[in-house]
Amino acid sequence: MSLRMFWHSRSIFLYFVLLTYALDSIDGSYSPKRSRSSNFIFRHRRSYERHKNKSTMSNSARANFDGGKPGVFATENCTVVVAQIGGTATLPCVVRKFNNGVVSWVRKHDYHLLTVGLATYNTDDRFMVEHVRHLQNWGLLIKKVQPSDAGLYECQMSTHPPSSIVVELKVTKALAEIQGSPDLHVHAGSQLRLVCALRDSTEPPEYVFWYHDRRMINYDPGVAVTEGRSSSVLQVREADKGHNGNYTCSPSNAVPASINVHVLNATAEEKPAAMQHANSSCSPTKIHIVSGVLLSGLLPLLPWT
């Protein structure tokens, strides 16, 4: 009985093997060996696609080297900073907090290394790093800006591959300008008011000195000077002949400006209406007095007296 069951089981096994082989022969799509090979090729293809995507991202980062690696810098590439001659310029370079590389600054026109980290690699002490740790700002500070400082500066991060952004510095020349120049005429006794405005200025001056001819008059009696962020006003309550002359507005960080002030006397030609009013008020009184004196002297001589 047991031998019969053995042959029966063997027949069933052969039947399933033959059935499987027949199905594989019909559609040609199934085979144990082919299936394992297909799965291996499929897994290899997926792995290749992942590596290909990583390679594409690296190429994109390398292509954007001049524009900075995405995610490394918070400061936009090609940022423009404007500073005036004699002023202070701060070129920003804010990096993401998860980057631990070293930041350095390079001047583009001569590829001169200016700073690495907090250290300055330049004999010119006008250049230094302004580091704000909690903001991750590694700004380049340039004091007493000169026209030759204008140009492109590169902030580099020592990542792999290296990343950088470019910041452009434009230098302007601030000028003082007095309203009403070159000549101003005022009447004696009236208020003298001079307004000095700053043009192309990027920062307020530390001081503005006013000169009458060659003497500084900011603290003279009767003179009031009011200073704003971009202007300075000089006032004299009552002008007289002593206020004639040249006035100069001289800010600490701008080209001075001058104006010539002419104080006019109150003569009959300058104020004819006022002079006419004075004559009309005095004449009747004088005529009345003379007429009274004449009549008092002639009354005894009249025939009816």
TrEMBL record:
<dbReference type="InterPro" id="IPR003598">
    <property type="entry name" value="Ig_sub2"/>
</dbReference>
<protein>
    <recommendedName>
        <fullName>Ig-like domain-containing protein</fullName>
    </recommendedName>
</protein>
<feature type="signal peptide">
    <location>
        <begin position="1"/>
        <end position="22"/>
    </location>
</feature>
<feature type="domain" description="Ig-like">
    <location>
        <begin position="70"/>
        <end position="158"/>
    </location>
</feature>
<dbReference type="Pfam" id="PF13927">
    <property type="entry name" value="Ig_3"/>
</dbReference>
<feature type="domain" description="Ig-like">
    <location>
        <begin position="162"/>
        <end position="260"/>
    </location>
</feature>
<dbReference type="Pfam" id="PF07686">
    <property type="entry name" value="V-set"/>
</dbReference>
<dbReference type="InterPro" id="IPR007110">
    <property type="entry name" value="Ig-like_dom"/>
</dbReference>
<dbReference type="InterPro" id="IPR013783">
    <property type="entry name" value="Ig-like_fold"/>
</dbReference>
<keyword id="KW-0732">Signal</keyword>
<dbReference type="GO" id="GO:0032589">
    <property type="term" value="C:neuron projection membrane"/>
</dbReference>
<dbReference type="GO" id="GO:0050808">
    <property type="term" value="P:synapse organization"/>
</dbReference>
<dbReference type="InterPro" id="IPR037448">
    <property type="entry name" value="Zig-8"/>
</dbReference>
<dbReference type="InterPro" id="IPR036179">
    <property type="entry name" value="Ig-like_dom_sf"/>
</dbReference>
<dbReference type="InterPro" id="IPR013106">
    <property type="entry name" value="Ig_V-set"/>
</dbReference>
<dbReference type="InterPro" id="IPR003599">
    <property type="entry name" value="Ig_sub"/>
</dbReference>
